[in-house]
Design goal:
This protein has eleven helices and three strands; from the N terminus they run H-H-H-H-H-E-H-E-H-E-H-H-H-H. By secondary structure, the chain is mostly helical. It is 68% helix and 5% strand. Strands 2-1-3 form a three-stranded antiparallel beta sheet.
């Protein structure tokens, strides 16, 4: 009997601890949900504003043009001056993969929130697929142009009788005309020619694409239709946009290459201009998948009328 009486207070204390823990978890979830709603509402209004959307490409152009000037102030001992940094290896080399994955998830959740049929969801996803095909085509064309316009040289040590009369700092160069840029650099030879920065091209196009696709959240979605998963994916996309801008600044400041980087930014801008300001504004008869907010505003209006 004495042992049973001593176990009763322990069980009551255990129940109290579990109840307090549940209350703490609920309070933390409410605070997290309120912070999520507040953060997505503020960023959604900024991303969906006409001023931000109409002038973001101007901001990006200024970054690409004047970003190399930061090389006079940045430190050469910074961790971002190392081309083998973790961010460069994990994100910069797979820029389009991260962008297409998160943006595609955002489009799917937006379509589910707006009660789109599967065909409409696939039509909106085709915008990302078309942008990816255009980016791949641009990279292939640039590779062919670089291989056609550039030349490959193999440095070799000159003979001793020639080395006595020539400068020892200038080795002889043997021309290899049948080498491509990739094979030339793979064989530790020298490549001379013009090039366009693939990294700046990818970053600029991905930033412009994210701004266009994320503007739907602030302009067309209502608070009722934006659930927790959609808000979380939206914040991840906003964080990805900030990361791409940061990596773009790091590339321009620590590894300036004029005019290679500026040509890459201009090509990314032209790709965005041709898609979102040109083809996607045409009628569906021209094979256009439509703009990001097409069909969403009408769905949210019908939801409000039903309420």
């Amino acid at each position: 009997m004495g042992q049973e009486r001593s176990e009763i207070p322990k069980m009551e204390m255990l129940h109290k601890m579990v109840a307090e823990l549940i209350l703490l978890v609920r309070f933390t979830m409410r605070i997290s949900h309120s912070a999520l709603v507040l953060g997505t509402n503020v960023t959604g209004r900024i991303m969906g504003s006409d001023v931000f959307r109409r002038h973001f490409h101007l901001l990006l152009s200024c970054v690409v043009l004047f970003g190399p000037l930061l090389s006079f102030w940045v430190s050469t001992y910074s961790i971002f001056a190392n081309g083998n940094h973790y961010l460069y290896r994990k994100f910069l080399r797979s820029t389009w993969g991260w962008t297409s994955t998160l943006t595609g998830s955002f489009i799917v959740l937006v379509s589910l929130s707006a009660r789109h049929p599967p065909s409409a969801c696939l039509r909106h996803l085709s915008r990302i697929a078309l942008a990816g095909c255009l980016l791949w085509t641009c990279q292939r064309v640039l590779t062919l142009l670089e291989d056609a316009a550039g030349t490959c040289y193999e440095p070799i040590a000159p003979p001793q009788e020639v080395q006595s009369s020539a400068s020892p700092e200038q080795p002889m160069l043997v021309l290899h005309q049948e080498q491509t840029k990739a094979s030339c650099l793979r064989n530790s030879m020298l490549w001379s020619g013009y090039e366009v920065s693939r990294d700046v091209l990818n970053l600029c196009l991905c930033c412009l694409l994210l701004v266009e696709e994320l503007s739907v959240f602030g302009r067309s979605l209502t608070k009722r239709s934006a659930g927790g998963p959609l808000r979380f994916i939206f914040l991840l996309c906003v964080f990805l946009l900030a990361l791409w801008l940061f990596l773009l600044l790091c590339q321009l400041a620590h590894f300036p290459q004029f005019p290679s980087q500026q040509l890459g930014g201009a090509l990314g801008y032209l790709a965005w201009r041709g898609l979102y300001q040109g083809w996607y504004r045409l009628r569906p008869g021209w094979g256009s998948p439509g703009l990001p907010d097409e069909g969403i505003a009408s769905c949210t209006d019908t939801d409000k009328s039903e309420l």
